[in-house]
Design a protein that fits this description.
Chain lengths: 261, 259
């Protein structure tokens, strides 16, 4: 065991490099995924077919194809004729992760925006706020807190998905784990270290996302204090964010509701 | 468009609204004069709320025209054809119309004050200071000056609705649409909201279109009552006449049920 530890300590620089590469893949992938998510998410809601149909096609394509195949395709197929595009392995990883998880996340964007109460849109129209203004100042601040918990899930999956990058020559955490195994010949030890490393990275990201969620909810005037961030428990989600009123309004809605037609 | 005292504030010309096969408004014609307070009554599904929603562009008519102060709103006749007016131009007319909703629909991500000043600043181009002064005066008018920096979710339904009224008035509308504004409120909160509206009716000359089940309120505030049934006006009179001696059988039936 002490041998193992010695090997581990000797490999610390490689561990640092591995974490760095994994973080680069994760953050790069996440930023790209976010851009893709909002573009495709809004695209899927567009009134014109010219935006809606391509958005749907792209979403379904990247959701419906395997991440492994996407990464290999970018890495091995793109340099071949007729493409001749040779991408840096890191760029391949970020691109594949961003497109794949962005496609999933676009459904989160679409769903969250759709779940903001209809009355909020109507009130914004009644005040003659412009379409962009409606979205930016009224709808997004209410949809954003709904998106964050689901984005957190996807981010964690993205961290783990980034382990595939080791197969396109990147020295990430997964690569480090394999290297540790070769040095120590102790499979249990090295893969357990590998598990723990991924867990720590994922957990730190979860904490950061929880902080983001708390802040977003505080801005909405709902949700708990920052102390919740330090806990493991997921932050309680309020189902009626954006209902435009507290519970009593919702319960009496059916009683007094008289939507003609 | 020439504007004078005889130009109606609102004019419906043969407006048809269908939801699928369901014809909600069936070639509706009616006008509302400037400064009129009109209450729309009638059974559920008779098209009252749809009229307000058409006037707020939350729904679009399938046929016919709607004029505000004589200006075409969502559609106009061009060369004998009915054509849609682009949103930019609709918006200029929509600015003159305000609406208060059954469910208040305050923005939970803003404070009470921010709810009220958002549109005056960004739509009417008022300075923040000016918008705030106006908003504070309105909050005072609805009796909620001290709630200025609260979140809407911290207020009771009645208070939220009074904020929503202040928010609509901050846009200085010529026409105010009130869509069952007390229906979602607990009974003990209704009086405050109606009090505020009565005050507005007495102190301004805003044209009001009211859909309500509060017949007493309709009687006090409005000078005209339209009875709807199946998307048509079947009776129309001043409130005194319609509430004491309705002529149409359907009106009598309806009033017996709600009074």
């Amino acid at each position: 065991m002490s041998d193992n530890l010695q090997q581990f300590v000797d490999l610390l620089p490689q561990l640092g490099e591995g974490i760095l590469v994994t973080l680069q893949l994760t953050l790069g992938g996440a930023v790209l995924a976010l851009l893709v998510a909002f573009t495709l998410g809004f695209g899927s809601r567009a009134h014109t077919r010219w935006a809606r149909v391509p958005s749907r096609v792209v979403v379904e394509f990247f959701r419906g194809t395997s991440l492994v195949v996407q990464i290999f395709w970018l890495y091995y197929v793109l340099p071949l004729p007729p493409f001749y595009v040779e991408l840096d392995p890191l760029a391949c990883g970020i691109l594949a992760l961003g497109l794949n998880y962005g496609a999933y996340a676009s459904e989160v964007v679409r769903g969250s925006i759709n779940s903001v109460a209809k009355g909020q849109w109507e009130a914004a129209i009644a005040l003659d706020l412009s379409p962009v203004h409606r979205l930016r100042r009224v709808i997004m601040p209410q949809a954003w807190p709904l998106m964050i918990p689901m984005f957190t899930n996807l981010l964690i999956q993205l961290v783990k998905g980034s382990a595939l990058a080791a197969y396109i020559s990147l020295h990430d955490l997964n690569f480090f784990t394999n290297e540790l195994r070769e040095r120590t010949s102790d499979t249990i030890f090295s893969y357990t270290v590998g598990l723990l490393c991924y867990f720590v990275v994922a957990y730190l990201l979860t904490l950061a996302m929880n902080a983001l969620e708390v802040r977003a909810k505080n801005r909405l005037g709902t949700g708990p204090t920052l102390r919740e961030v330090l806990r493991l428990a997921p932050v309680q989600t309020t189902a009626d964010v954006g209902a435009g009123g507290p519970a009593p309004a919702a319960t009496t809605a059916s009683k007094g509701g008289d939507r003609d037609g | 468009m020439p504007e004078n005292d005889t130009t109606p504030a609102i004019e419906f010309q043969g407006v048809v609204k269908r939801f699928g096969d369901n014809v909600v408004l069936d070639g509706l014609d009616f006008t509302v004069a400037q400064g009129d307070r009109v209450t729309l009554i009638g059974p559920s599904g008779s098209g009252k709320t749809t009229i307000l929603r058409l006037l707020m562009t939350l729904e679009e008519a399938n046929e016919g025209l709607i004029l505000i102060d004589g200006d075409p709103y969502t559609h106009e006749m061009r060369g004998g054809k009915r054509v849609a007016i682009p949103d930019k131009r609709r918006s200029l007319v929509r600015r003159r119309v305000g609406m208060v909703f059954q469910q208040f629909n305050l923005f939970p991500n803003m404070t009470v004050l921010e709810n009220i000043i958002e549109a005056p600043i960004h739509v009417l181009g008022k300075s923040k200071a000016e918008a705030t002064t106006i908003a504070e005066a309105l909050l005072d008018k609805v009796g909620l000056a001290e709630k200025r920096d609260e979140r809407p979710t911290k207020l009771s339904g009645g208070q939220q609705q009074r904020v929503a009224i202040a928010r609509a008035l901050a846009m200085e509308p010529e026409i105010l649409l009130l869509d069952e504004v007390t229906s979602a409120l607990d009974p003990e909160l209704v009086a405050d909201v109606l009090g505020v509206l009565r005050n507005i009716a007495e102190t301004t000359d805003i044209t009001m279109l009211i859909v309500t089940h509060e017949m007493q309120f309709a009687r006090e505030v409005s000078n005209r009552v339209l009875m709807f049934d199946k998307g048509k006006i079947i009776e129309e009179a001043d409130p005194e006449t319609i509430f004491t001696s309705p002529t149409h059988e359907r009106t009598q039936e309806f009033l017996r049920a709600v009074l």
